[in-house]
Amino acid sequence: MGNVRIGVFLCHCGSNIAGVVDIAAVLAYSKNLPLVKYAADNLYTCSDAGLSAIKEKITEHSLNRVVVASCTPRTHEELFRRACEEAGLNRYVFEFVNIREHCSWIHMNEPGPATAKAGELVRLGVKKAAHLLPLETATAPVEPAALIIGGGAAGMSAALNLGRQGFAVHLVERGSKLGGLTAGLWKLLPGDRPASELVETLISAVKKSGNISVYLDSSIKEVSGFIGSFAVRVDTPRGEEAFSVGTVIVATGARELEPQGLYRYGEIEGVQTLRQLEQALKSGKKDFTDVVFINCAGSRTAGREYCGRICCAASFKNARFIREICPTARVTVLQRDVMAFGKDFEMEYRRALQAGVRFVRYDPQRPPQITGEKQVSAVRVFHTLVGEELTLPASTVALVTPLVPNEGAGKLARMLKVPVDTHGFFLEAHMKLRPVEFATEGVYIAGTARFPGSLREAVTQGTAAAAKAAAPMYAGVVTLEATVAKTDTRICSGCGNCVTVCPFDAVEIEQDRAGRNVSAVNAVLCKGCGACAAACPNGAIQQQGFTDLQIFSMVETLTLEGGADVFAR
Ligand SMILES: Cc1cc2nc3c(=O)[nH]c(=O)nc-3n(C[C@H](O)[C@H](O)[C@H](O)COP(=O)(O)OP(=O)(O)OC[C@H]3O[C@@H](n4cnc5c(N)ncnc54)[C@H](O)[C@@H]3O)c2cc1C
Predict the structure, then answer these.
(1) Nearest CA residue ID for atom 37, ligand 1
(2) Topology of 6-135+549-568 in CATH?
(3) For residues 325 and 284, is the Cβ–Cβ distance under 8 A?
(4) Is residue 569 predicted with pLDDT exceeding 50?
């Protein structure tokens, strides 16, 4: 390690870090760490001035390893890696130390221990940096074609966007027509635009596009491969069809919860779901008398804790429609809380009030009771605000149930090797930073397949997912992350543990030239989770950028050299 020259850059992050951590003390400590040839602090290391300083000091002090102690690698690692690269270093001789989330934020009331911990983390970062090695990145070609699964509003928006950009699109819909849930609705919020008008506009644009191939009544049989080169097999009414694509967008939507066993649904006449009521309105029903909506039917409850997000607004919309069609009808919405998010949905609440819709707040501990023998006759409800039980005559009860994951979502998730959340909705890579992407590269998500939401969100997400998918297809190549697993075949015994534990099917056993079974990592599929490296009994698989040497150098620093009070040394 004779020629290792490390630079340490400490960030104040305004007062985010420096308001708690004593940066001057950590700086003085960092300057004396072994192999550190330069250390400095910055108000914002990610600013132009901060990045320029890193580049200048790399040249000025012939630094060949860089440690930045600042915020989170999730948002800033790429920025600092690029700065190193621009100064002529390999991007992987950079080490990130998080002293914001891990120190100043989590220990915001303990400046002393937060400062000591920041010093320790910098010390460990420097230890690891000393063992960092340059890594080579590889590239893979990307086919300029996309598979979109699901032909609802989200899927069609994504298809149109990609089609207009000239990419070949394969739009696979398991139903007999395009449109998804929206096709069965009457009028849409905001604006009361007929749902059929929106759906027809999208379908006609899809049909006119010369770049979109639509597969109706079709199901995905297999998707294998990786970003740039996915092999797809689809079961269609014409038989199996196969093609290859560079990217995949999941837009499989969600379905309304069927409230079996709830509020006597399926047991007596007159109790239906909100969607069934909207369909009745669509088919021209006008003879309403006493209508009661029960919101949060089957949502915000044990096992389904989430809010359906659009249910409140969709119930207010239909309650108002009934009052407009039939002004003599008595219409009551039973609600736990009004969740009308955003300006449009808040306005819809007001419009329903103005249209004469009555709102009653109920207590989930004392849920409404449906009375009637064969046909619903009334709903009894304890009005929490007036503290009285009311009996509301009812000929129609609409159960406002949440959207739940579509059938087959789990199977599709396993096929694409992407995760679902505890309720079975597809789980994006990061709710805020990567909302329309999966961790698996080249696979994207849009619409209510991800979580209940409005049509506007579905269309926006469809367009956003298309924009994300277009980027690698335009480039024609993807640069592969180099911090992936790598096998030293000389010491691999071919036991296959790595194959068993890999969640991405990135490892295989193959024969080397001497005919020995050895593990081989597909760098395109590998996500660098490190599971194989941990499972390997011989240390033959190493996670690049997190090798045993690099990790143990940090562990040994803490266990052998001692930890805690850095300023006592
Ligand atoms: C009663 C009701 C009223 C509503 N009113 C409004 C409103 O007024 N305004 C508003 O903004 N929103 C409203 N919504 C919400 C709106 O319906 C959704 O936001 C919208 O449907 C989401 O579109 P999507 O494309 O994500 O999903 P979907 O519309 O569910 O489309 C998904 C498509 O994927 C297909 N699919 C599923 N799995 C597969 C598979 N494995 N392979 C191939 N295809 C598959 C499905 O068949 C479907 O065609 C309402 C919802 C309900 C239930």
Answers:
(1) 252
(2) Rossmann fold (3.40.50)
(3) no
(4) no
